[in-house]
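Protocol step 4 of 5: obtain the predicted structure for the target chain.
Materials: sequence only (see below). No template structures provided, no constraints applied. The aim of this step is simply to have a reference model before the mutagenesis design in step 5. Sequence pasted as it appears in the construct record:
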Amino acid sequence: MVEYPSNSWKGEQLQEALKSKDVLLKMGAIRVLQEEPNDEYIATLVDTLNDSDRLVRINAAITLGRAKSPLAVPALVYHAVADQDKDVRSYASWAYRQLDYQKASPYLVKVLLESDNHDMIRFAAGEIRQKNDLKAVDTLIQRFQSKGMYTGYDPDMAAVNGLYEIGYATVEPLLKCLDSEDTRVQANAAYTLGKIGDDRAIQPLINHLAKADLEMRSRISDALIKIGRASIPALIRLLDNKDSELKWIAAYSLAQIGPDAEVALLKNLKMRGPAASEEIVYALGIAGRKDSFSPLYETYISTPDDSVKAWSSISLANIAASSYYEVTDRASANKFLDELGDQLKPHMLLSYDTLYALGKIYIDRAATTDVVAFKSNMETGVKCFDLSIIERDNAAARAFRLFYGSYLKLMASKSPDIMNYIERDITDLKKEAERSSNKKEILFLMDKLLKILQGAYEDRGFDFTGNFREYAGYCKQMEPFLDDFYHAEDPKKPMGKEQPTLHADVGMIQDKIDALLKSFEKSDDAESIALAYRLSTEVARIDTGIYDDYRIAESCLKGIVSRMAIPNEEKSDLYFKILLISKNGVSQIQLVLDRMLKGANVAPVAKKSAGVAKADVKKPGMLEYIAIAIIIILIVAIIVIALHKFNIVPLPFRLPVSWLNPSLADALLGSGLI
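Step 4 output (structure tokens):
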């Protein structure tokens, strides 16, 4: 007969009963502990909360509530939010409420940092928020410290997410962190403030921009972008700052906030009138939509500043790509597109999808009976598809470049072999289509397009402009099926073979930075020296091949250029070249440095050839000097002895022979040398 637990049971008896598979035995042990809770059994009771029997779990929760041990916090929080039985959730929540919050607080922090259950994290954060537990907040912030180790600006996501869930109560402590000397604390605080999105963080973040280093400025910009619409007024005011770097940060942030910033940017552009700045034009080109086209076009045609005009052209191209069919002033839009065709070139700061969209617009404009306009728009459309592929290899642009390019070739070429070339190209494209999940649809449409081309080739009087709509219609039908057409969609290239070339490029760049440093040292320009050293560090990081963030390098170069004693036109040109770095990479950095060295009249430091430069000649050490001295003494001694032998130089003493080998001594005495 089974003996069930009673108040006389202690120690191992109760432990074994709690672990028993017999539900009644286990329940009896729990009831005993409900009468006299004991910390000795907390760990076992916590395990019992996972029992398959709901009544066991309920009674275990009640017992833990009466025991009031903070050790049970994580388990009670879990079952309060995640247990499958609503009664167990209710009793687990009641049990947690019985605990002393001050003792439970460290375990709530542990939940925030270690749990991967979002409901538990929200529960713990809610408790800390309701109690306004600044001590718990400070414990989370302590995780941001680098603790003497270089950890860069990387975010501690567990702490960040915990503070984000707590929310409002963390803003003031996080704002104080912006003054920390530990850059990791600053960066994590800015990241968290951006994620929380509280308006109170905006002005303090803006205020810290001026004294922040390059990387921290980037983090603050990201935070303001995340806060979003509420940041717009402060960022608009920053556009009037005298610091060019801060103005560009404001413009970039407003551009990334997007359409919400359009109205404020347009108002600012109108206020400036003819004195429109590059920064605001750039921001409108990304954040603006159809309403921005006409004001930007007015700036484009009226500005005397070449740099502003260039940025206006880029911005108008972006807006035309996204909103051409909604622009009310279609005449101006068409006039601009006519002019844009000549300006299009590789790496014009237009993204691959913008170029692709422009290509389609030009193709639509080609549907006209005017042969000259037809041909001009077709050529520009194909050019856009070409440039789109340069920015990123994408299936639709490759297909459209081939089909519309073939149409143009057939229209203009008089070669009897032209059709063979076109058929060969389309056959190659069909092979690619065989690997597509939409190959049936693609091959059907390709055959339709090829049939039109073959018909045009056979009919020398073919009406290319009149039949173009049908041809373009088949191309448009193909577009939705091209998503997985090619396997080269990912712009990232594997490292390996290209790495040595990159390393060689970086080596040349470091030589040019050294040349700049020498010129700054002569002029005692401490700030430019600091920027050049920071640039050198960034270039070294890029040399690893796994780091492709060029923003810091761009910032360093802008700072150096702003301090150079060169004409404003040259500075503007350099700023434009610097902005191309994010697209062109290492080669663009080298181009910018070459231009800077030319402007500063400094020649890069040449690599020294072995055995040529004096600085490369190895200086003799002490041992070498001693060896040379001994050799000289021996030579002198031999000469003197020889001269003595021939009675040319008499010696004032006789050479001792007692320390010599006897046979050697006899030989010397016999020779008359000594």
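Step 4 remarks: The CA atoms of residues 382 and 507 lie 38 Å apart. Confidence is low (pLDDT under 50) at residues 487-504, 603-618, 657-661.
Proceed to step 5.
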